[in-house]
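To: structure desk
From: M.T.
Subject: fold request, one chain
Message: Could you run this one when you get a chance? Sequence is below, nothing fancy, just the single chain.
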Amino acid sequence: MNTFQKSAAVWNSFFTRLMRVPLLDKVIGKSTAIITYTGRKSGKTISLPVSFSRSGETLTVRVMMPDKKNWWRNFTGTGDRVTVDIAGVERAGHAVTSRSDSGAVSVRIDLESSAR
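Reply: Done. C-alpha cells follow.
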C-alpha cells in the first residue's frame, strides 16, 4: 500500500463515520454515498464513501486518479453486486466499471427496485 492509499484509507474511514451521524447524512448524502462490496481478491467486505451523480435508478461514480486506486477494479467485466447507502437508506445494485479512450474511469451502479 503506497502513501496515497494509506492516506485515502484514513480519510475514507473518517468520512464513512461522519456520514453515519444523524442529520449530517441527510446533507452529505445528496451527492455522496457509502458503497459496500466484497473484494474480488481478498473476499473481505469493504465500505467506502463515493461522490455520485444520479439519473433515475442509475448512479454514476467518476473515479478520480483511477491509476492510484484499486477499488473500482472489482467491477470490471460483467461487474458485481454492491450495496449503496444514500442518506441512511440502503439499496442493492449492480456495478460495472468502464474506462474511456482517454483513460477516464467511471462506475455505473444500477439500483434494484426498492418496491417490496
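Reply (cont.): The domain at 3-111 is CATH 2.30.110.10 (Pnp Oxidase; Chain A). Let me know if you need anything else for the meeting.
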